[in-house]
Amino acid sequence: MLERVFETFSQADCCLDRSRGGLGLGLSLVRGLVELHGGKVQAASAGLGHGTEITIRLPLAESMPPPKSPVVVGDDENSAQRVVLIEDNADTAESMRILFSMSGHEIQVAHTGLAGLEAVRAFRPEVVLCDIGLPGGWTVTRWPARFGATRHYKRSG
Question: What pTM value is reported for the model?
């Protein structure tokens, strides 16, 4: 498994429902961020049941560049959005609710896929953020068709 551990969606547990948590994106993101900073990341293990050691090596900068001017996001009154957050982890949901509220957004939180669909129906948000790893999360990805909306996907790269 070590040779695939940094691949996107790679997990030792290959069941579709991801009942043990996660989507297999974390270490792929780590590798991408480390490489963007000119570093390297490695995984090592003594074998099954012995854990895994992740080593990150980043180059040291000789001198730090002066900080850029801060960018203020969401400063105009028209930037506030209605957001539905569908997240089964209560701590994560509450942290994100606070963050979005502090940024001026109106947010509804649901803890299951079904409750999320009901929140979308009632609240009619501009943005839906959904943990697709939660039970019923994949069904939420079909919500636009259920409500007569058009799907819009933004892809970077």
Answer: 0.50
- CATH number of 123's domain: 3.40.50.2300
The whole-angstrom separation of Cα 143 and Cα 121 is: 9
Cα dihedral: 24, 29, 32, 36 (round 10):
180
Count of structural domains, the chain: 2
Confidence of residue 134 (pLDDT cuts 50, 70, 90): confident
DSSP 57: E
Phi, psi angles (nearest 5°) of residue 68 = -75, 165
Q: What DSSP element (H or E) covers 142?
A: none
Max Cα-Cα span within the chain: 56
- Asked whether residue 151 is assigned to any structural domain, the reply reads no
Find tokens 């068709």 and name the residue: 145
Quick one: residue 92, left, alpha or beta (phi over 0 = left, psi -120 to 50 = alpha)?
alpha
